[in-house]
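Re-run with default settings, no changes from the original entry. Doing this only to confirm the output is reproducible before filing.
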Amino acid sequence: MASRIAGASGNLPFELTTFVGRGDEVRLAREELTRSRLVTLTGIGGVGKTRLALRVARASAQAFQDGVWLVELDQVHDEGLLAQTIADALGIGEVPGAPTTLVDHLAEREILVVLDNCEHLVEPVATLAETLLRGCARLRILVTSRESLRVVGEVVLAVPSLSTPAAGQAVSLRKLSGYEAVALFVDRARAAVPTFELTEANAASVTEICSRLDGLPLAIELAAARLRVLTPAQISARLRNRFALLTSSSRGRPTRQQTLRACIEWSFELCSREEQRLWGRLSVFAGGFELDAVQSVCSGDDLGEQDVLDLLGALVDKSILTRDQTGAVVRFRMLETLCHYGAERLRDSGEQPKLRRRHRDWYEQLVMRARADWIGPRQAHWLQRLDRERPDIRASLEFSLREPGESVSALRISAELHVYWIIRGLTSEARHWLGRALAQRPSGISSERLEAAYTATVLAAVQGDITAAIPLAQHAEEVAARLGDPRSHAIASLATGAVALQGGDPAQAVTVLQSALEVFESAGDLYWTAITLAGLARVKGFLGDSQAAARYYAALRSHSPSCVWLQSEALGALGLGLWKDGDTEQALQRLTASLQLKQGMTDTFGTVLCLDTLAWIAADQGRFRRAAILLGAVGALARPLASPPTPDPGLLAHHEQCAQQAIMALGDSAFRAALARGEDLSLNEAIAYALDNDLDEPLPTIQVTTAAGPAASTLTARQWQICELIAEGLDTKDIAAKLFLSQRTVEGHIQNILNKLDINNRAGIVTWTLQERADPPGHGPDAGRWPRPE
């Protein structure tokens, strides 16, 4: 007959500190306990598995007639004592038959047993748990361990770190307190210093502490305890040496939790020698990493590629790594605290310099593979991959710039990311890396230096920094002269063309780009030919030569049919050229097509160019609220790029003119409200707004009556402006100069006006315009809606 279990309600200890957060985890674990008889909470040491298990057990107590029971296994190292330790915790006494006797005692009990800290006894705990569950129908077991038991029927719940804002993220005090890690820090800080408050002055430091400690409860509690002698800012500044800083003298903590180092070492010692070696080698990664990177960087010596695959799985099982999957991509991540510990071990082993160089070499090859595929159908794939790998690309650049004799790799990596930098709007960061790389002058002149100088020139021009762009282009020319081959001279010509466009001489830009195109085409250089064709389409669009822009766009499509980004750029330039030529309908089609290609690409700079041109068109059509919203989106999106909406200074006048027209038509208050709406749009929202051409207001129709008889027609705001200027006596050349248009574009507008008004000559336009001026408001263009030149 089974003996009575002492203390029918169980033996759970009382909580001595506030339980913070974890609402979702508690609910999920309780739900799983109603469905499964074995639930295991896994996670790295210090993540709060024990505290969570106790909260779940306490909240579930009413469901278990014979109570909930905690069995602490952290001090049990002899598996032969496992069954007796459980019996002692339950108050059963001696169990001479070990598991069999224990089953006899628990067979009829409705009971929840919490087996805490099982990672060092995984196999014997798994065997015993399976035996108990098979023999005790009403028994449920809740386990905490750094790895699962792998028992049939086990449900594994990974315990995440506490929620925390990203380091450097600006968050209001009210929202900051909603992050679990911050709430825990504040709670424990008040226990250490009762007067502590979260304020604007210390919020950034508290955020930094919680973020850099990965939201680990143990680390945060140890950090908060340091407030007795340090400020949050001082704690944050000392986190580089976190293992020395984060210690505790609390008598209530288990030995392994007295210091952060002891907690991590407990996990390290539970790993095999090969797992420990891989842990150290993985510390060279700055962010998440994928299998191909790990196998290339970390294999070799005594670890084969297949070994690495198996060891990765083992480290995931032991909660050293977390596994994330997005679509078909699986990435692994190590908490910063574990990475710091691994780096110490790697440094002690003497392998760190070799592994860092391997890491740099692999990411350099990754960037080169991306460059080779830019003109192909895998452009979207590489954009996403480089986004994911950006922290490690930065680490590779830093290594190349700090290590003597490695600067050529920094030049190569930063230059070959040229397309990526521009699409993602990372111009300032790119210029930072390129500037540092170019500042290191190696003894030899290389093609890498030439391409880096070209890329730096283009990025400076994109940001409107002509002062920096000019010497960079000159340096490119100097390097090309020393290299002496036609290809090098052609690349330098592209840099010169970028300066010419930004300097207000697009005609020169066309000349040098055309000469470069001949070289690249004759050499069969796919990449540079595509870049140059897109550049020529862009410049011709800025000049208003839509026919030439269309020819270069067609050539680009034929040359690189799967290069979505460059085609979208050329289409945007063609749309601009068509607008300047007076063909609004075709311009809208091309700009819309460009934005459709950019959807999901996160091409901020190219999108800004399209949105700006669409704003000008909207103003021409009298859709001033739409124009103002688009201008707001342009301003907000261009601001982080530290660049004007267009690299051609001649086009900035259209931007300013559009704003003035909208202000005059809407009034200052309504204009600012529309502008603010545009500023609130994200990149994708702005594209969606621009593609919906039916928003806000219909196209206005101007009823025109002339001496030749009534004619229902429409004049755009641009055409009305030209009528006014003709009436003032300006000729075609003067009108073109005043409106920043080409003479051919003005002539096209004039011909459209003559056709719409059924007038044969400019004198007829003058007569009609003067008549319209004399008409009362409401006949012809409404003075309150259509802005007439002063």
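Residues 153 and 333 are 28 Å apart (CA to CA). The longest strand covers residues 139-145.
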